[in-house]
Amino acid sequence: MNERDLHDGLTQAEAARRLKKYGPNRLEKKNKVSPIKIFFSQFNDFIVWVLIVATAISGFMGEKADAITILIIIIMNAVLGFIQEYKTEKSLEALKELAAPTAKVIRSGVLRVINAEELVVGDLLILESGDRIPADCMLVEDSNFMADESLLTGESVGVEKSSRTKNSSIYMGTIVLTGKGKARVIQTGMKTEMGKIAGMLQSIENDRSPLKEKLTQLGKVLVILCIVICVIVTLTGIWRGQDKYQMFLLGVSLAVAAIPEGLAAIVTVALALGVSRMLKRNALVRKLPAVETLGCTSIICSDKTGTLTENKMTVKAMYFNGKIYYVDKESIPENLSLKKAFTYCNDCNFDHSGDNIAKSLFGDPTETALIKAFFKENKELKGFLDKARRVYDIPFDSDRKMMSVIMNEGSKEICYVKGAPERIINRCKYILDKGEVKLLTSDYRDKILKAVETMSFDALRCIAGAYKDTGIVKGKGLEDNLIFIGVAGIIDPPRKEVKDAVLKCKMAGIRAVMITGDHKNTAFAIGKELNICKNQSEVITGEELDKLSDKQLSSKVDAVSIFARVSPHHKLRIVKAFKSKNKIVAMTGDGVNDAPAVKEADIGISMGISGTDVTKEASSMILLDDNFATIVSAVEEGRIIYDNIRKFIRYLLSCNLGEVLTMFLASLFYLDTPLLPIQILLVNLATDGLPAIALGVDPPDSDIMSGKPRPKNESIFARGLSEKIIVRGSLIGVCTVLAFIAGRYYGYDLTTCRTLALSTLIMSQLIHVFECRSERHSIFEIKIFTNPYLVGAVAISITMLLCVLYVPFMQSVFHTAGLNLGQWGIVIFFSGIIALINSLYLYFK
Ligand code: ATP
């Protein structure tokens, strides 16, 4: 492999050619969803089969028109179910695509982030700690490279890898534990070691939703209840001498209509639709159940840099030779040693072909800011970099909070170190003061710490630089006996939208907590600006945290708003402490070391831009824009979705209760059957399908973010929902029966009376669907037209009813009569009266 290859990688054209020839770097997918399978699974229901068989029998016995219509209704129901389920599967699939891994490659000399599927043999990969290796490769350049190959070998200890030893092969699916490297792709797709044992890797987990499980349980109870009632209705009918077949068909139809078979499925639809809405707001949900939990979030622990702040860094001040220089106020005297320390001990990439230095630097914003502070032009930087060659490095890591390099500057080797000031000072024995190396006395030390304190109170992020030119060893001991040079103070402004988001959290009873590796004062200054905290007493440092036992931490944690100078391993303790106080914790993370905390949190959140693959895989949600405000939007969506699920559960169950009760009451009071089987099925079709789905996408109540989060194990029927369902459902049933009796009272024939009952039942459900839109507000307060889907669905259902009532051919199929104005009066009265009373009650309350 020649130098040029190592530098420029493949050309785009060559990569495209290889991709075409050898195919994508993809493990074959198992069991894709098939639409046909989904369609037929709709009939995978015992009760539906009983209905089909019963219908077939009644068809042979002469009721042909009835039989055909029932079959058509069954098929239409299946189509509705199919649409729901297919949409769900499709959106889940789309989700998987989105969460697909990416890879950093160099092509035509430029660093690009591509979809890992586009990798081809020969590509030059850039790997960093936390990356999941996207193909089988050979390392060509590396430092401190360790891989976790447990996925392949089961061994969970890291394996050292190096291009200089025999152990230079790295494998798809394994993880870079530490260090970084460049690697050449040697196998892709099914030809990789991973491909040989394909199927082990699953990027998205379709965990079972607890809510869905609970509803499936509830569904089973309801099925039994419904069947019992249907049997009673059927038997009373037969006992009273009605036609056995008709009564049997009636019972089965009632079972089909009343059993809320869609309940659990519709929860998935609502969750999946919510997921796609969250995606529009830049939150990518990886685990469906997380959507439910999001709504209960009571604590959001967020990283500072990049999530609360913009991650757009600029050096604002420098401290050296005993003085703080402010960039905006004065010109800063040249300090060559500091310039070298910050430029050589720096991992950002540099595209030397362009002119504009701001556009030519890529990498960690802290590091690019340092370079921009010293260089205005590309040429100048290139000349400076060409004067020295890096021979060794220890990369930055947030636990150590420092980084070091050994540079060969022609005649000799010099070590440069940069990192958090306290850490650096602890390793310094000398100080460079106006060009002279002196012993670092406590006087000097105090002065430095004072300067750091001053800068950090101005919200500046401080980085110190140091060096040494003797006693240079590769490895342990390299960072001892350093010579202190100076400190840079970098500003990273808070994101604008965060302040509002924090306020929104407060109103919603959610606490925002900052977790940062930065200095206590810097963290406090930013926290104060964002209204995350008021007093210094709310800040605790990693050092203080280490002194607390888990129990002490847990008793203190409620009073802490900022954890400063913490390391990733502290995060796990913090999550556990909050959880021990029964809080539902959302926790962000980006680096590899954050993964355990992200996994432990109720909602693990990773960063789409700066996050590592390992953390993304451990998380249940990815922030595509790394923004804190997005977390709050996601929590809001979580609440909306949960609310909507409650809405349609309320609707479906009270309607079904109304249907069952109508038939039950009629048989109890020896009335004629108020509805024929075919009419019951029509009610089911007209009211259960579309309106319920439309409720699932209902816009939120305006006060959705102004209450406390709900407890995690709260029943879906809590806060009076079950009472609402029972009362309203019973009233629907009673009113329908009353409409039927009223018809009898006025002496109408049986067909007209049934038509009255049918219309009342349908109309009261269609009115009720609007009531279900809010638990706190009456029909008069909610704006009817804010959910156009619902208005559309209701319009379709009403049209359906009108057709059945007035189209002659339909009249004969559904055994109905066209109602006159007076009869409509009865319908409107009985379907509207309850809603009116209920709304008046809510309105005046
Ligand atoms: P957050 O957890 O909010 O993202 P952070 O990004 O500020 O916090 P770290 O990146 O761990 O946390 O940085 C902690 C400290 O380490 C910084 O205050 C700074 O002093 C030092 N530091 C940050 N980046 C570098 C770097 N590239 N090289 C050397 N030191 C660094």
TrEMBL record:
Recorded hits in Pfam families, A to Z, give: Cation_ATPase (PF13246), Cation_ATPase_C (PF00689), Cation_ATPase_N (PF00690), E1-E2_ATPase (PF00122)
Instruction: Tell me its EC number(s), please.
Output: 7.2.2.10
Topology relative to the membrane, per the entry?
Multi-pass membrane protein
Q: According to its record, what are the GO cellular component terms?
A: membrane
Q: Which residues cross the membrane?
A: 38-61, 67-83, 218-239, 245-273, 648-670, 725-746, 790-809, 821-844
> Where would you find this protein in the cell?
Membrane
Q: Which UniProt keywords apply?
A: ATP-binding, Calcium, Calcium transport, Ion transport, Membrane, Nucleotide-binding, Translocase, Transmembrane, Transmembrane helix, Transport
Main localization of the protein described in the UniProt heading: membrane
The GO terms this record gives for MF are:
ATP binding; ATP hydrolysis activity; P-type calcium transporter activity
According to the lineage, what is the superkingdom? Answer: Bacteria
List, alphabetically, the SUPFAM superfamilies matched: Calcium ATPase, transduction domain A, Calcium ATPase, transmembrane domain M, HAD-like
Domain Cation-transporting P-type ATPase N-terminal, first and last residues per copy:
2-63
Which InterPro entries did the record assign? ATPase_P-typ_cation-transptr_C (IPR006068), ATPase_P-typ_cation-transptr_N (IPR004014), ATPase_P-typ_cyto_dom_N (IPR023299), ATPase_P-typ_P_site (IPR018303), ATPase_P-typ_TM_dom_sf (IPR023298), ATPase_P-typ_transduc_dom_A_sf (IPR008250), ATPase_P-type_domA (IPR059000), HAD-like_sf (IPR036412)
Q: Record's family?
A: Belongs to the cation transport ATPase (P-type) (TC 3.A.3) family. Type IIA subfamily.
Family annotation (PANTHER family)? CALCIUM-TRANSPORTING ATPASE
Its name, as the record gives it, is: P-type Ca(2+) transporter
